[in-house]
Amino acid sequence: MSGEGLTESTPALAGRRTALLVLGLVLVALNLRPSLAGFGPLLGQIQAELGVSAATVSLLTTIPLLCWGLLAPLAPLLTRWRSSETVVLLSTGLIGVGALLRVGPTLGWILPGTVLVGAGIALNNVLLPSLVRRDFPRQVGLMTGVYTLAVVGGAAMASGLAVPLRRAFGGEWRASLGVWAGLALLGMLAWLPVLFGRQTRGGWGAPAGTSVWRNPYAPPVTLFMGFQALVFFTWLTWLPRVLQDRGLSPEASGLLLALGNLVQLPFSLGVPVLAARLRGARPLVVAISGLIAAGLLGLLLLPAAPPLPWVLLLGMGSGSTFPLALVFIALRASNPAQVPRLSALAQGVGYLLAASGPFLFGALHDRTAAWTTPLWFLVGCTGLVLLAGLWATRAEPSTRR
């Protein structure tokens, strides 16, 4: 009787643990973009109140991206000290503390808060996709889709609520950004059960022969991650300002940005599943690069036309490139132990590359006093997304393990 009861309870217990892991994964992933996505619709007011140039104010987006690049290599090292689950919990706490500091009255508070937010996101950027590959080896595509759906959903929520939250707090943009500290606390509470019954110390060792530097797919995967992130975070930062200079209100531009993020949701879920099943992802790379290019060219060549179609095209394209980059990381690693190292390399170098995007876009606008040259710059970078993606899909072996 007792043996039979144990047999019946074990699958139920495993199911509950899996459900808690998925819930924790989703709520932590929701924290990875709001501090940046909620910034774009408020950019004009922030720049005016701080009295700085467009290039300078873009540092509030550039600094987190720099942190993502510089600190990503620390994630595999920290997992030797504490378990990945423990590091994820602590990193989510950093995001919350940083969000609170960004409520401060001066740049002396805002900049350190921005660094802490960037540091927490940098570590979780690497570790969460690695946990997906480790804990869901047979559902990599589906669970990558769930993860990216949560990431993109957080961005959509923040961009859509930025202006309404500012209005609710009496026109104070700092409070609109600081409210996301509560989401970080919720993510920590949801992640705590994941730690129960698991080791707290590190041990994700690398077996011999798993050096990421010997992986021939490491360079193209890294470049694809970098250029797609450069394009996305640049338009995420500057699109509301571009639209406002063309006559839209802050509320309307924030709504369009939210729609550009919302339209990413089905692509964030569907593209990883499709990419994991396709024998070759080259047609997918061409199609999604074309969507981004079409959106940018629409903004460039038809400035008087309603911007909604172009924003939706940008969202559909970027909603596909990010999850595809994560699939490349998961499937191009030689084995599960190499995933955090390939992830750290791709995101470390990739986000350092991406960090230049918002700054260069703002600097080009400062120099030309127009948006034409900056938008052509993004078109060129989209071409590099295409080339890197084609390189990453060359001579594909059977990667569905």
Automatic annotation (TrEMBL):
Keywords assigned: Membrane, Transmembrane, Transmembrane helix
UniProt cross-references to InterPro entries, sorted A to Z: MFS, MFS_Cyanate_Porter, MFS_trans_sf
GO molecular function: transmembrane transporter activity
Protein name (Swiss-Prot/TrEMBL): Major facilitator superfamily protein
Family matches, as CDD domains: MFS_NIMT_CynX_like
Origin superkingdom: Bacteria
Annotated transmembrane regions: 53-74, 86-103, 109-128, 140-165, 177-196, 217-236, 256-276, 283-304, 310-331, 343-363, 375-393
Plastid is among the record's keywords: no
One Pfam family in the UniProt entry: MFS_1
Lineage, uppermost ranks: Bacteria, Thermotogati, Deinococcota, Deinococci, Deinococcales
Keyword Membrane included in the entry's annotation: yes
